[in-house]
Amino acid sequence: MKWVKITLPIIILSASAAACWALIAHKPAVAPQAGGKPPPQVTVATARLETLRMDVASQGVVRPRTEIDLVSEVSGKVVAIHPAFVAGGFFKKGDRLIAIDPRDYDFAITKAQAQVAEARKDLLREEAEAEQAQNEWQALGGGDANDFVLHKPHLAERRAKLAAAEADLAAARLKRSRCDLSAPFAGRVREKQADIGQYVESGKIVANIYATDIAEVRLPVPSEQIEFLDLPLFYANAAQPAAGPSVTLRAQFAGKIHTWQGRIVRTEGMLDDKTGMLYAVAEIRDPYAYHPSHPPLAAGLFVQAEIAGSERSDLINIPRAALHGGYQVYVVDRDNRLRMRHVGIVRTEADRLVIGKGLNADERVLVSGIELPIDGMQVVIKTVAPGGRS
């Protein structure tokens, strides 16, 4: 049976090889498919040169340009106050806001007047005595007299005492005038800290007041957007700085959005060392004037600001959806193939990109239709985004 063990495997292997050859030789022919996968359909927008005004958005809080602490310069009891001397009260320039009891200061004026009268009397008497001494010396014919004999030092003393008495009278009258605290400008009371009947010390703050002629808003501007604004940087050699760009302020008040107009008048001295921003100051004149379309621009109101920027005619505006992978967009060439471009983005807004370089006018830019575009991919333009053309 030894020959069976040797020949049986050889027979099985030969049969398997013959069967494989038969299968290969007689396999059915595969019919080719009719056509491949069609190119994807895409939406494009046409890149166009536009003249754009590069407005800069900012925000800030309204504050008065002039705000001071009203301080008593004399001590005494408050005997009268202005009807508008309350928080929020309006007053005019020159209005007497608060009056301090003046009687002590009136007494001081009377006393100073008496001292002036006495000093003037002493001076007149000394002048008469000096004249008499001069005449007597000349009658004696004794030569040149010294100053003491002619009463010259005495006259100088009397004149100095009169001048001192008149200065005391002027000081007494000045203190009396300070019993009435008058408004140095037309404005409004923010906070009062004294009332009628209260005794106030010299140097005490009796109120905080601010002017209502001009309001200001500090507006932070990122350093990379300063180039879009014609800001008054106030160079040291500028004789008269030019007016800055206009500003539109918006705020919600009483359930409505209101707008006010202002203008940038200056920039602050340096960049903020924490944020790297430059603060521009917008000025709004007569913020409390009546206007039928909006309420007063009250101090403390938070506002959104739009600063008018410079116009540029070398920029391209495309939909924001055209941006892929950071700073890349794809254009469709004449053969309907995608070509990748690296672009310089000047500004990114809610629904658009403002491109400074990397695109040419009238190029077709891919907007949608492909999630992962590939450079050189064949496409079919299905639609053109609004504002574009194929």
Task: Characterise the protein shown here.
- The structure is a single chain.
- The protein is an alpha+beta fold and 390 residues long.
- Among the domains are: 83 residues, conserved putative lor/sdh protein from methanococcus maripaludis s2 fold; 77 residues; 100 residues, Elongation Factor Tu (Ef-tu), domain 3 (Beta Barrel).
- The strands form five sheets. Strands 3-12-15-14-13-16 form a six-stranded antiparallel β-barrel.
- Helix 2 packs antiparallel against helix 3.
- The two termini are 87 Å apart.
How are helices and strands ordered from N to C? HEEEEEEEHHEEEEEEEEEEEEEEEE
* Name of the level-1 CATH class of the domain at 212-311: Mainly Beta
- Computed CA radius of gyration, to the nearest angstrom: 46 Å
Strand order of the largest sheet: 3-12-15-14-13-16
Uncertain segments: 29-34
Q: Topology of this protein?
A:
Elements lengths: L1 H24 L15 E6 L1 E6 L2 E9 L2 E5 L4 E6 L8 E2 L4 E5 L2 H38 L11 H26 L2 E3 L4 E6 L6 E2 L4 E7 L2 E9 L23 E8 L2 E12 L9 E9 L16 E6 L3 E9 L8 E5 L5 E5 L1 E5 L3 E6 L6 E5 L11 E5 L6
Parallel strand pairs: 1-23
Antiparallel strand pairs: 1-22, 2-17, 3-12, 3-16, 4-11, 5-7, 5-10, 6-9, 7-8, 9-11, 12-15, 13-14, 13-16, 14-15, 17-21, 18-19, 18-22, 20-21
Helix pairs in contact: 2-3
